Amino acid sequence: MGAVCAILAAGSSTRAGTDKVDADLGGQPVLAWSLAAALASGAFDRIVVVMRPDRPRAVIESIVRSRAPSASVVAGGETRTHSTWAALAAAQDADVIAVHDAARPFAPPSLFTRCVDIARAEGTAVAGLPLADTVRRADEAGVATEELPREGLPPRDP
């Protein structure tokens, strides 16, 4: 079928205190930025947006339909893993499926294009950034005992 971009927009936003998906970011909902980048990349034949199952569907539909009328909107699950499985089920016929977190709205279109190209050539691709946080090892009392080098450490997963 080609390439599908699955945008996960089903998080609970517990740390933010408000639903990030429709929060205003530069005059647009956060989700709109991910949709725009995926569309601008030209890498995808289809877009699937995964929403929280307990959220009013009309809110997500209004964001998606005005920007990507042919995109599919499907219900996610209780966890990111469950939502990813929902996206995969909605894109079973795809040759390549890119899974993107809507809470990370600054991915440039070129990143989507590069990942799809690499996945087609190599069978898989994962985008990542070097760890920017300082990492310290602590003893049982919680006292920092050493600072660890960042090289080779994975990015933090919120």
What is the count of structural domains? 2
Task: Specify the biggest β-sheet.
Answer: 4 strands, parallel
Order of secondary-structure elements: EEEHEHEHEHEE
Estimate the mean pLDDT confidence. 87
Short description:
By secondary structure, the chain is of the alpha/beta class. The protein is 29% helix and 23% strand.
Can you offer a commentary on this structure?
The protein has 158 residues and is α/β, with parallel strands linked by helices. The chain has helices at 30-41, 57-65, 80-90, 109-122; strands at residues 3-9, 24-25, 28-29, 46-51, 72-75, 96-101, 135-138, 144-148. The chain is built from 4 helices and 8 strands. The strands form 3 sheets. The protein has a 4-stranded parallel beta sheet with strand order 5-4-1-6, with helices on both faces. A hairpin with a 5-residue loop joins strand 7 (135-138) and strand 8 (144-148). It is globular, with a radius of gyration of 17 Å.
Write the layout of secondary structure elements.
Layout: E1 3-9, E2 24-25, E3 28-29, H1 30-41, E4 46-51, H2 57-65, E5 72-75, H3 80-90, E6 96-101, H4 109-122, E7 135-138, E8 144-148
Parallel strand pairs: 1-4, 1-6, 4-5
Antiparallel strand pairs: 2-3, 7-8
